[in-house]
Amino acid sequence: MLPPLRPFNAPDWDPPAQKPGKPELILHIGQSKTGTSSIQRVLGARRAALTALGVCYPASPGWANHGMLPASLVAPDQLGHFNPALWDGMGAEARLARFRREFAAEMAALPDNTRLVILSAEQCSGLLSTRDSIARLRDLVAPFAGRIRVVIYLRRQDAHFASGYTQALRVAQMSPPGLPPYGPDRLPHYDYAALLDNWAAIFGDAAIEPRIFERASMVNGDAVDDFLALAAIPLVVPSDDPDRYSNLSVTPAAIDLMRRMGEAMRAMPEGLSPASPAWRRFVTAVSDAMPGPGWRPAPAEAAAFLARYAAVNEATRRRWFPARPSLFAEMPVAPEGAEPAEAPPAPIDTEAALGAACTLLLHEMKSTAQREAQLLVQQGRLLDRLGEEAPAANAYRAAIRVVPDHPVAQARLAEIALAAGDVAGAEAHHAVLLRSHPNHPQTQRLGGLLGRTGAAPP
Predict the structure, then answer these.
(1) 3-state helix, strand, coil in the chain (%, to 5)
(2) Region annotation Disordered: residue ranges (predicted)?
(3) Tell me, what DSSP letter sits at residue 250?
(4) Which alpha helices (DSSP H) does 21-91 contain, by range?
């Protein structure tokens, strides 16, 4: 069993001596907007392959993001921005109590060949902002771990804030885009020197492994490849694997649409809330339909914002990156003579928002059509199994009325035509597939069937 959580005002704790034979533990604590979601999705989707390599990516803290872990270590009033779906309909406290039981059981049942456990939650670097809360995390993981490594990717403060703007909209924070006029005294999570000092005070300097989130500083210029390399995990993840591309930003027009929709929902009787299922469905649909670069500040604005963090960044460099000439190599360059002006908040571009709304509507219409066609194809397959050929054919015809080039529906109608001796009809369906899906397995298979009948290629 894991030890009980320490009270919030508990004194510092002396960890017991590490026992030999326990697996190494990597605590990946963030930051957000540094490829964490991609790393988590890659690991979560490959649990079987990781297990074969002696690596455990636990499931009890979450399928991809292990946000349940830091959530279980803070007071309930700090959980406002967590997606309510995380609590499985039972409320935060009950769900977190279940997590603690499941996590203890999962760690107790680690296979004997486990050499490495990875826990990844960017919320650790945000929620666990005091040494006491960090110590509670140490108390939780120390009993099952040998060597502990704390990995965090640091992103230049202005770039991090700009990248996080879309994420702020996703949780219904409807402020206009712009960098805040504050330094580390008002935005302490950007004081990387203090952040690393706090974690080092609990886990020791040798355990802290900060990385710089810049292409030139990462293996293959990529956070996923960099993390797999530092963890010595020999997994090959194709560059076009969709797990690499998650939690993306959106186009500027999509940002205007989200802001306008937020205003409209706020004026409704139920109001606007990050917990609203309607709002979450909306922002997910926008993100799917219009991925893009997000909002970016002007170079002069970025340089002025970053100047407020020059001292803490230099302190971070001296302690953790003494070989680097500066903490971040890629710096914003303001035009010569440019002065950052106090600009009014950017208004919503209603024309851009309208264009984005049209794009979203078209995307949703196409997605709905695909879902409807897929349901009809499933109905047709069920009727096929029941031997109801005519109703099955009607279901496939209904599917291609919705999505004319649906590969499965077209192929099945071609097969039905062939079975009835209608080679010309089968060839017509095959011609549609050759135009729309030339490399689809259904197209290739149907071509083989037509070849065996002696039909000429269309």
Answers:
(1) 55, 5, 40
(2) 1-21, 437-458
(3) B
(4) 36-44, 47-52, 68-71
Domain range holding 371? 357-453
Say yes or no: 306 and 404 in one domain: no
339 & 406 share domain: no
pLDDT, tens digit, for every residue of 384-404? 999 999 999 999 999 988 898
User: Is 334 in the same domain as 426?
Assistant: no
Contact assessment for residue 286 and residue 257, using Cβ atoms and an 8 Å cutoff: yes
151: helix, strand or coil: strand
Question: Cα 176–165–318 angle (5° rounding)?
Answer: 125
Q: How many residues does the chain have?
A: 458
Alpha helix ranges (H) inside 249-404: 252-266, 277-289, 299-307, 310-320, 350-385, 389-402
- Is residue 273's pLDDT more than 90? no
User: At 425, is the secondary structure helix, strand, or coil?
Assistant: helix
Selected residue with higher pLDDT from 36 and 353: 36
Q: What is the mean pLDDT of the chain?
A: 89
The answer to whether residues 99 and 173 belong to one domain is yes
Residues with Cβ within 8 Å of residue 200, at least 6 apart in sequence: 207, 208
| Residue carrying structure tokens 């006029």 | 181
Shared domain for 361 and 341, answered yes or no, is no
| CA separation for the pair 249, 163 (Å, rounded) | 7
Of 51, 155, 164, nearest in space to 109 by CA: 51
Distance set, CA 227 to CA 39, 86, 122, 152, 168 (Å): 7, 26, 14, 10, 26
Contact present, 261 and 169 (Cβ < 8 Å)? no
Distance, in Å, from the CA atom of 271 to the CA atom of 302, rounded to the nearest integer, reads 33
Of the candidate ranges 46-60, 328-342, 420-434, the one whose mean pLDDT is the lowest? 328-342
What is the signed CA dihedral for 166, 75, 27, 89, rounded to 10 degrees? -70
Between helix 277-289 and helix 350-385 the angle, nearest 10°, is: 90
Residues 6+ apart with CB under 8 A from 222: 35, 215, 244
Q: How many CA atoms lie within 13 A of 318 on its CB side?
A: 8
- The type of residue at 30 is G
Full strand arrangement of the beta sheet holding 55-56: 55-56, 116-120, 24-28, 148-154, 208-212
pLDDT in tens, 334-349: 666 555 555 667 788 8
Neighbours of 68 (CB within 10 A): 24
Residue with tokens 């369906």: 429
Indicate if 312 and 337 belong to the same structural domain.
yes
- Give the count of beta carbons closer than 10 Å to the beta carbon of residue 152: 23
